[in-house]
Design goal:
- The chain is an alpha+beta fold.
- The chain contains four helices and nine strands; from the N terminus they run βββαβαβαββββα.
- Helices cover 29% and strands 30% of the residues.
- The longest helix has 19 residues.
Length: 151
């Protein structure tokens, strides 16, 4: 189950594609759009990343940054960012521990097969590090517009 609105957002320390560490606490004083997605270079995840990239300027004008998180490694993130010309970092959570802390990781079923994986979930975290808004079971098309409205 995802974190509730109003709860403290767990801090984390994750690498991006350029092997630079990002901590949630380093973004205090600004809002953070933290989105969890299953896998680089898949159709839905590509659309979601492109939508956030397209909306990035408007998101930044509202005082927020965008951080994407998936289990993919730094090399995969670097390639995905370069391929799509993404202007925001994608963070590597290879063991799903950060996603689990946020309630965005657990058992999934696809084609009758059960496995552990990332739930497509987005959090808006306020300037003080509290969860302001949660989007569960995200539909990628139009999601960045939903986030912009909530900011």
């Amino acid at each position: 189950m995802a974190l509730k609105e109003g709860s403290a957002a767990p801090d984390f320390k994750l690498l991006d594609g350029k092997e630079k560490f990002h901590r949630l606490s380093q973004y205090r004083g600004q809002r953070v759009v933290l989105y969890f997605y299953p896998k680089d270079n898949t159709p839905g995840c590509t659309v979601e990343a492109q939508e956030f990239n397209k909306a990035l300027k408007k998101i930044e004008e509202k005082g927020a940054v965008v951080l994407g998180v998936s289990p993919d490694g730094a090399a995969s993130h670097l390639s995905f960012c370069e391929k799509l010309s993404l202007r925001f970092p994608l963070l590597s959570d290879p063991d799903g521990k950060v996603a689990a802390k946020y309630g965005a990781y657990g058992q999934k079923t696809l084609y009758g097969r059960s496995f552990m994986g990332v739930y497509r979930t987005t959090y808006i975290i306020d300037e003080k590090g509290r969860v302001a808004k949660v989007f569960e079971n995200v539909k990628v098309e139009g999601h960045s517009s939903e986030v912009l409205k909530a900011l």
